[in-house]
Amino acid sequence: MKPARIPRTFSAPAHWAEFSRGEYYREALEQQLKPWFAKIYGFHLLKIGNLSAEINAESCAISHQVNVSLQGEPAQVRADPLHLPFENKSVDACLLAHTLSWCPDPHRLLNEADRVLIDDGWLILSGFNPVSLLGLRKALPIRRQSAVYRSRMFTMMRQLDWLSLLNFEVVHHSGFQVLPWTRQGGKVLTTHLPALGCMQLIVARKRTIPLTLNPMKQSKAKARVPQAVGATRQYRKP
């Protein structure tokens, strides 16, 4: 398995249109996100990366949405995603639409998202699936010109392992868009073979376990042994 952190510098695409059939991917991702956006409430939604900024999140109840990126439009905050300029536990939800695919250190990026998220905050990840038709074409020795084949692709299980180490509860994970060259992506195949989808979606929530126990709750949790009726104490003389 290749290490997650690599010294290589990636040039992330500024728009979905830079992908071959990129608009198909964006529309398919927005359809998958709509039911989850309707469940997310709070004050601040952080869209990390240029591709995240172009995702239509009007169905989300969070009105204050901030786009963060090093360059490109429509970035509102110019910053390195690996060093987010926000306080700890100040954001209700983070959207990383294919952001890990262009990150040299995905562990660091997930740690930054975990730092700025409030307790029970939402983390949404998407990316390309290496175990798909798209992933198989990337594995071929033929060099492709599309930006898709220059991106990093991580398996679903690997990403779930990263989230479990950060104590995230994964509430949903799936694949979709099995046929990358069609707008619908193959509805029947996506329904019956979602694991082969060329795109992946993970929805998780940040869970925090207190390091110190509440003494009142701890005392209530202790099982008390009832005193036997009519029992007397006996003392043995020394």
Automatic annotation (TrEMBL):
Protein name according to UniProt: Methyltransferase type 11 domain-containing protein
Gene3D superfamilies cross-referenced by the UniProt entry: Vaccinia Virus protein VP39 (3.40.50.150)
One Pfam short name: Methyltransf_11
Matches recorded under SUPFAM superfamilies: S-adenosyl-L-methionine-dependent methyltransferases
Methyltransferase type domain residues: 74-125
InterPro entries referenced in this protein's UniProt entry, alphabetically: Methyltransf_11, SAM-dependent_MTases_sf
GO molecular function annotation: S-adenosylmethionine-dependent methyltransferase activity
Organism for this UniProt entry: Pseudescherichia vulneris NBRC 102420
